[in-house]
Structure formats: structure tokens, C-alpha cells
Design goal:
about 500 residues, mainly beta, Immunoglobulin-like, 6-stranded mixed sheet, 6-stranded antiparallel sheet, 3 helices, 37 strands, about 10% helix, elongated
């Protein structure tokens, strides 16, 4: 009897190792989860002595071993207790389990676990791939208008869930992107800014009132900095005092309209300026730069009409923080200027462009490359109907030097030449991102919707068109994005899945 008891000890020990495994406290997805993504991180407790793991996934909800085995569609091996696998459909139920071998090569299996993917109407929005990727086959693309993440074949992988009621069909989402911390940041309805993890849990929310003023709002761009703080664009409403007889010779920025004594010879016009705000994780303002402190009111004469309308503003619409060199680049769309400032001093280092410079017109994004070049997405708005461009510019190398254009890519919609472009209206939106191999990911502006990767020899490496189904026209129509962003490969995607927003 003692011998039989000793023979049972390995099995007893294995059962003891299995107890925390089946308890579920470390098992993800959690039992009964409703997921807004198809690329799933399966995690489970480490079992001492296990030489390898496998997860098995079946379509449907089963508690019977026989039914489960009949419907298995995926078996994925792994060396650790974390395995990423993709399920094929949204709006379906799934059953899964993990099995592993011990040192005696005996296979043990967990109990069956269950989850479902949320339903999404893919018949209303899609990403139609035109040119298949070769270099970036494992990349993923965030589309802010779609509120979703797609793989390079145009398959929907993840969508922004309803988070405490903040997201719905009418929500205006902007600047949806991954952060270096493995989280997701975005702005909502120009009023709020959020950081969430892959599962949709809120990690951080910007204070409701930027600049401590309820009349101000957030806009265009929001970034999680490497120092752990958050940087975002805000507004700064001011008033212009204008002599009616000499409009542009007498403009000055004055206090709020409620403090002004009006007179018949003077117009007082609201004039929104921009600000850039840095918040600590606790939501305190730790740094701020206001345009009014540096803006020369004579530049108002060079403002473009906003969106082609008779409304003038400088329209701060993008920033890039070169944290290594402590320089922030600010893009002012309606004056066609890019201003670089020293951080944290806030002093202006350089001011490039202007509507009379001939360099760029109505740009929408700016980045400073690893090699030290300035890239702009240029809406090219000198004349309505102009085609947008990506510009690569070299900053002045000395006091006597000037900003120089050294490369450009002019977008041409497929099958349409410049003469066939719209003759009215102005293009808006768009952005450009430098990739690790120095090629460029770009989202084309409205009225174009194409997203693409272009090399420096101007070859299209991948392209796709976001589209939305028009119930009125009964066909797919271009669906322009405000900004798009890219996850460059599997490693970065795994970081998003596993990090939970923390390093």
C-alpha cells in the first residue's frame, strides 16, 4: 500500500499545481467576457514543470468535451503562459482551454472557458486595400473617423468600445494612436482627452476645463510624453480691436469682450488663438505656452479664411515635441507657419513659412525626424483644388541659412489628374509619420481618404481607402480621416495587448 501511495504522489502534486490553474484568478479573457477585439491575449497561471502550452479555441459556447473538440478551429502553441491568437468573427461566442505537458510528457488540460466578441456593423465602414503591403505586412492602422484598428489586409481587429458612455455613433474621435507606453490615446468631441488600455479601461482623463476656463476646449493632437506627462493643444479666445477705416493697420489684441467699451469707429472681433498644455498624471498643469504672449498682431493680415469661410484665425493645429533636443514645433494652419520654441523656456527659436513665403500653405501636421529633417503634411491651399503634398525640409544650418525643401511627394488620386480636381473648397486634415525604414505613412486629407506608405523614391509600398456605405447613393464612398496612425509590427502590437498601459 505504501508503494501505491508513493506512485500516486506525482499525480497528486500535478493536481495541486492545477488548482490555481483552474481557479480562474489569472485567466484571461475572463469568463463570460464581451470583447471589442479579435486579436486576443490569452493568459493563464504558470504551472511548475510544464514544458510547453497549447490553447485550443472552438466556435460556439460549449461545456461538453465532445462538442468542444468537434468545433476547434485553432490550436496555438506557446512557451509561456501568454499566447496571442486571433478569432475570425465579431458577434460570436467562443470556447477555449489550455493544455500542457509535464516532464513526464503527459498532457493535462484545463477546464473549458468562454467569451464572446461584440457585434459590429462592418457593412457600414471598411478599409479597402488597393496595394498589398510587403515590408509592413504585420503592421496595423488606427483610423480615427472609423474609431477602429485594422490589419494591413483591411480586416477590422479592434474598435473603440463604449467607455462609461463616452463613445457612440455620433462621437467625434480624433488623433487615435498607440503611445510608447503601450496604451491608446485619443480626443473626443473637442472636449475630452483619454488614455485607455487595449481592453478599454480608462488609464487617464484630461481635466474637463483646459486653462481653468470652461469656454476653452482641446483640439487636434494629444500625446503621452516619455516623462509620464501628457501634452495637448488647447484654445485661447481673445478679442481683436480693429479700426474700421484702417482695418489691418490698427489691429491689436485686447482683453475679453465683456471688458471693452464699444465705439462706432471700432470693430471688436473674437479671434481664437491656441495654447499647448502639459499635464502631470495627477491632472495638474506643469507647463503651458500661449500664442497671445508671442503673437505679432500684424500677422493677422496673412491669415487664410478658415475652411474657405470668412472667419479668420491663426488655427494652431499640430505640435511635435523633440524631447531629446527640448524643442517643440507648432503648426499654424491659417498663417502657413511652423514655429519652433525652446522647452521649457517657451522662447521662439525659429519661425518658418507664412502665406507669402511660397513654401507651404495650410499644413496640418509637422514632425521632426530622427535625421533632423522637418516633415510637413502640406494641404497646399494657395489655390482651391491644389493637391496635397508631403514635404521634407532642412532647417537652417547657420544664421545666414534658410529653410530648404529637399524632397516632396505630391499626392495624385488614382485615375485623376490635377486638372480634374475640385475647383472649389479647401482640403483639411491629413498627417505624416516617419517609419523605422525612413518610409512615410500618411493619411490624405478631406476630400481624399486614402492612407498609404510611400518610400523616398516615391514608390507606394501600401495603400488603402477608408470607405463608408452611403444609404442615399447606395454605394461605398470615401470616408476621410482627420488623422491616422500606424502600429509598425507584431512586437509593438504585442506590447499594446500585454502592457495594460504600463511598462
Amino acid at each position: 500500500m505504501g508503494a501505491n501511495y508513493m506512485q500516486r504522489i506525482p499525480g497528486l502534486l500535478f493536481f495541486l499545481f492545477l488548482i490555481p490553474f483552474v481557479a480562474g484568478s489569472q485567466i484571461m479573457p475572463k469568463e463570460g467576457s464581451k470583447l471589442h477585439y479579435r486579436l486576443i491575449g490569452f493568459s493563464f497561471p504558470v504551472v511548475s514543470g510544464a514544458s510547453g502550452y497549447n490553447i485550443e479555441i472552438a466556435k460556439g459556447n460549449y461545456n461538453s468535451e465532445k462538442e468542444f473538440r468537434k468545433n476547434i478551429f485553432e490550436t496555438r502553441p506557446g512557451e509561456s503562459n501568454k499566447i496571442i491568437a486571433e478569432v475570425p468573427f465579431f458577434g460570436k461566442e467562443y470556447t477555449w482551454r489550455v493544455s500542457y505537458t509535464n516532464k513526464r510528457s503527459k498532457v493535462k488540460k484545463s477546464e473549458l472557458h468562454h467569451f464572446a466578441t461584440l457585434a459590429v456593423d462592418s457593412n457600414m465602414q471598411r478599409l479597402r486595400v488597393i496595394k498589398q503591403a510587403e515590408t509592413y505586412k504585420d503592421a496595423y492602422v488606427f483610423l480615427d473617423a472609423n474609431k477602429a484598428l485594422y490589419d494591413m489586409k483591411g480586416n477590422l481587429v479592434w474598435f473603440l468600445p463604449g467607455i462609461s458612455g463616452i463613445s457612440n455613433d455620433n462621437a467625434n474621435v480624433r488623433d487615435l494612436k498607440i503611445s510608447a507606453e503601450g496604451a491608446i490615446t485619443f480626443m473626443l468631441n473637442d472636449k475630452q482627452a483619454y488614455e485607455i488600455n487595449y481592453n478599454g479601461d480608462i488609464l487617464w482623463r484630461a481635466p474637463d476645463n483646459g486653462n481653468d476656463n470652461p469656454n476653452l476646449h482641446y483640439h487636434h493632437q494629444f500625446t503621452h510624453l516619455s516623462n509620464g506627462n501628457y501634452m495637448i493643444l488647447g484654445t485661447e479666445p481673445v478679442t481683436l480691436k480693429i479700426n474700421k477705416e484702417h482695418p489691418f493697420d490698427s489691429i491689436s489684441i485686447v482683453a475679453g469682450a465683456d471688458t471693452i467699451k464699444k465705439d462706432k469707429n471700432t470693430d471688436y472681433k473674437p479671434f481664437p488663438l491656441g495654447s499647448i498644455i502639459e499635464y502631470s498624471p495627477s491632472g495638474n498643469v506643469v507647463w503651458q505656452w500661449k500664442t497671445s504672449q508671442h503673437f505679432d498682431s500684424s500677422g493677422i493680415a496673412y491669415c487664410l479664411p478658415h475652411h474657405g469661410k470668412n472667419k479668420f484665425e491663426v488655427h494652431l493645429n499640430a505640435f511635435f515635441f523633440d524631447e531629446q533636443d527640448s524643442i517643440i514645433y507648432l503648426s499654424f494652419r491659417n498663417t502657413s507657419q511652423v514655429v519652433s520654441i525652446k522647452y521649457p523656456e517657451g522662447t521662439i527659436v525659429n519661425a518658418y513659412g507664412g502665406n507669402d513665403s511660397g513654401l507651404f500653405y495650410g499644413q496640418h501636421s509637422c514632425i521632426h525626424s530622427r535625421a533632423g529633417y522637418l516633415y510637413l503634411f502640406d494641404n497646399n491651399q494657395k489655390m482651391a483644388g491644389n493637391l496635397p503634398k508631403i514635404l521634407m525640409l532642412q532647417e537652417p544650418l547657420s544664421k545666414n541659412d534658410t529653410l530648404k525643401k529637399i524632397w516632396e511627394y505630391e499626392y495624385t488620386p488614382d485615375g485623376i489628374n490635377e486638372k480634374q480636381q475640385p475647383t472649389t473648397g479647401f482640403t483639411i486634415g491629413g498627417n505624416v509619420i516617419e517609419l523605422p525604414d525612413n518610409s512615410l505613412f500618411t493619411s490624405m486629407c478631406n476630400p481624399y481618404s486614402e492612407v498609404l506608405i510611400v518610400s523616398h523614391d516615391k514608390k507606394i509600398l501600401w495603400s488603402a481607402i477608408p470607405e463608408t456605405w452611403s444609404v442615399i447613393n447606395k454605394k461605398w464612398m470615401p470616408f476621410s480621416q482627420y488623422r491616422a496612425s500606424i502600429i509598425t509590427g507584431r512586437t509593438e502590437m504585442e506590447h499594446l495587448v500585454w502592457s495594460n498601459g504600463k511598462n
